[in-house]
Every structure is written in C-alpha cells, then in structure tokens.
Amino acid sequence: MRILIADDEPTSRLLLKAIVSKLGHECIVAEEGSRALDLLSAGGIDVLLTDWMMPGIDGPELCRRVREGTGDSYVYIVLTTGLDHPEHVLEGMNAGADDYLIKPLDSFAVQTRLVAAARVTELHGKLSQAQDELERANLELLELSLTDQLTGLGNRRRMEEDLIRTHARALRVGRTYGVALFDVDHFKLYNDHYGHVAGDETLRHVASCIDFVVRAGECAYRYGGEEFLLLLPDLRPGDSLLATGDRIRRTVADAAIPHGARPSLPPVVTLSGGVAGWAPGSTLTVMEVVAQADEALFQAKAAGRNCIREAPAALEGRMEATKVVG
Amino acid sequence: MSDVLSDPLDRSQIELLLSLDDGEGAALREIVDEYLAMSEDGQAKLLRALDERDQRGVEHAAHALKGASANVGAAAVAEVCGAMEARARQAQLQGAAVLTERFESELCRARAALQAVMQKS
C-alpha cells in the first residue's frame, strides 16, 4: 500500500516511516497537516497515519477535510494519539478516522492496523469498481432501450424525446428545424415476394444507407414498420429540406437493391419522402410538424413514389404550392 | 537514590529500533541522531517557556519531548515530560517547574546512554 505519514515531531515521523517501510509498504511523509492535504489531493494514497496534535491543521481537522473531499478512492485513516487523552479516540473516530494507535508506537501495533487497512481499502476498491461497472451497464441498457433492434437507428422512443427537446430548444433560442419522413415503396409486395427475412435485411440495408449520408447534428430513426424519420435540429438560412430529403432518396435508389415485385419502374427498392419545417413564429407543435411531413409523404406516394414532397411552408405564413423534386 | 543506578533506557524499544533495518542499525542511528538534536532544542524551548510562564509553550514543548523520548526508549524522560505536560494543561505551572531538575537529570542520563548505544551499533 501507499502510506502517508503526517506528524510534526521528527522522531515519530522517522520511526513510523521505518516501521511502515520494513512492513513492505511505500511511504511518504508530511511535516504538517496542510502539506498532508496537498499530497492527498494528488491521489494514490491508501492509508493516512496522522498525529493528533499538529500546528495548523491538526489530526481531526485533517480527517474531516479528507472525508469532505470527493477523491475517487477511499483513504483509510489511522489517528495516533497519547494514552493520556482517551477522549481523543472517540472525537477522532467521529471526525472520520477508521482506527487509532496509542503512542509510543510499536511495529506490531502498526502492522495489525495495516492488515485491517489493506482489507478495507481492497473492499472499497472492489465496491467502486462494481459501481463503475453498474453505471456502465446502466448506460448500455439505456442506449439499448433507445435503439431500434433491427436497424440500429434510434427507435421511436428516442425519436420522440429528441423531437420534444429539439422543439423546446428551437422555441427557447429561436432556431429553425426540419423533419423528413420516408417510406419504402411497395414494401408489402417486397415482403410477399422475397419473404420477411429478406424484408428485414432490406430494412437494415436502407437504414445503413440513411445512416451513411446523415450529416453531423442530424439524426435518423426508425419511425415504425418501413418508415424512417430524419431530424434536422438546426437549419441554417439557405438549407433546403427538399435537397436533404432527395439526397437520401437518391442514396437508397443508387444502392440498387433489386425489387422485382413492384408494379412500376425502377426495379429497385426506392423511398418516398415528405419534409416539413418549423421556424420561429410558427404556432405548430412538433407533432403537427411531423403530421405535415406525413401529409407531404402521402402526396409523394400519390405522385407516383420515388420522390420527395415538401409541406406548405409554415414560415412567415407563406402558403406556397407544394414543391416537387425527384 | 536507587533509580539513579537503574537503566535510563527501555531496552525493548532499542531492540525494536534495531530490528527495523535487518540489524544494520541505520534506522536506530537516524532516529537517535534526530532525537539528540531535537531534545537539545526541545529542552531549551521548555526551559524558556517555564521561565516566561508560557503555559501553552510548556504544554507543547513537554508534549513533543514526551513523544520523542518514548520513541527512543527514554522512558524516564517521557514520564517526567508527561507529568509536566499534564500540570501545564491544568495551569499548574509551578507544579511543572518543580520537575525541571528531574527532567534535566533524566535527559542527561538518557542522552549519555543513547550515545553509548550509538557507539556500539
């Protein structure tokens, strides 16, 4: 173990150091309480052997400061005191000491204390390791609970949380955001023709195409079934939702996943998409924005699929005709 | 007085110090050296504090000498220093002062005995 000795009296310091070193431990010394605190804050100390009476920061005060600190590892504290002050023992234990030694010190007494110290610091180490592992496992579980199992994209729960957060932030700081909703064209026919296993594989493939082209800050989710949603939380002037939607549509079409069962050309898996935006001044809720994107998606389907439609802009009360791309 | 003839050192403590570094005596020499220096200094502090009737000064100097003396086996010095510390704490400075002579003679004997130990080791 690494042991810090705090004592203002030089022969006690030397004696303790010799005893502790003889027992095979690494030993550092401090002549006063404030120096001990400095060494402790640097970390890596398992045991503190501190004298009661020191000028400045005395033993019990040192105990209190160590226990108030937020160090990663537990420091086992043994307070050394004279036999003529039995009341010190209880006061020291209340201040945070784990054990005490009566002066004059002998190596057997020190050795027995260090056996307990080794056991307790090892337990604390295991406990903090178990706690770290638990926290890591909890994070993994949280991540899993927000991830779509089939595609690895965010799931509906994560999507809803992110939409609400994005909308709240847009309201608060005056940002513009957009959503794009995609649906795999003729997917029921695909499943009927190729089977559900191939259908799942294709959903994974489409998801990876989407995931591959999303940009920093954008986030893709599996909305449900063969529908995907892309959230663009921070649109800048000049950003085009239609262009973004079409970038994704093209990427999937270019992947050329064969779809021989569809009634129309091209003979590959394609997406239809609807996009909608929200800008400061709009009175729409986030779910209304998603509903607008869904309405635009419906229009894309009606227009022959494999294309993107944009909802009438809610911005500045414009009521433009639906724009067309694709 | 019979205790003048008794051993001023607790030999088991000397044995302990000798056992701390595989019998080479380096730890013993280092600690005793430190004691010979600090006890001279401590003695001066204690006598000055008694002279100036500085109660806290007497208590602290006696306390430090008590601990250090016990560490090197100077049991009689530790005992008289303990008594001086206790009396000073109870504001009995006169009671502490009457122990001065005993303190000085015990310290003198202990230092001589320690120097003899050093020459042997």
Q: Give the overall shape of chain B.
A: elongated
Helices and strands of chain B, in N-to-C order? HHHHHHH
Count structural domains of chain B. Answer: 1
CATH structural class of chain B: Mainly Alpha
Low-confidence stretches of chain A: 315-323
Strand percentage of chain A lies at 15-25%
Quaternary structure:
heterodimer
Mean pLDDT of chain B: 89
What is the spatial order of strands in the main beta sheet of chain A? Answer: 7-8-6-9-10-11
Number of helices of chain A: 10
Which percent range fits the helix content of chain A?
40-55%
The percent range for helix content of chain B is over 70%
Shape field of chain A: elongated
- CATH fold description of the largest domain in chain A: Alpha-Beta Plaits
CATH superfamily of chain B: HPT domain
**Structural category of chain A:** alpha/beta
Query: Beta-strand percentage of chain B?
Result: under 5%
Mean pLDDT of chain A: 90
Q: For this structure, what is the CATH class of the largest domain in chain A?
A: Alpha Beta
Largest interface in this structure: A-B, 18 and 24 residues
Largest sheet of chain B: none
Would you write up a description of this structure?
The complex is a heterodimer of chains A (326) and B (121). Chain A is α/β, with parallel strands linked by helices. Chain A has 2 domains: 2-140, Response regulator (Rossmann fold); 156-325, Reverse transcriptase/Diguanylate cyclase domain (Alpha-Beta Plaits, 2-Layer Sandwich). Chain A has helices at 10-22, 33-41, 59-68, 86-95, 107-145, 156-173, 187-194, 196-213, 241-254, 286-302; strands spanning 2-6, 26-30, 47-51, 76-82, 99-103, 176-184, 219-224, 227-235, 271-278, 308-310, 324-325. A 6-stranded mixed sheet of chain A has the order 7-8-6-9-10-11, with helices on both faces. Chain A has a 5-stranded parallel sheet with strand order 2-1-3-4-5, sandwiched between helices. In chain A, helix 10 links the parallel strand 9 (271-278) and strand 10 (308-310). The longest helix of chain A has 39 residues, at 107-145. The termini of chain A are far apart. Chain B is mainly alpha-helical. Chain B has a single domain, classed as HPT domain (Four Helix Bundle (Hemerythrin (Met), subunit A)). Chain B has helices at 2-5, 11-18, 26-51, 55-71, 75-89, 93-97, 100-120. In chain B, helix 3 packs antiparallel against helix 4 (55-71). The longest helix of chain B is centred in the first third of the chain and has 26 residues, at 26-51. The relative contact order of chain B is 0.17.
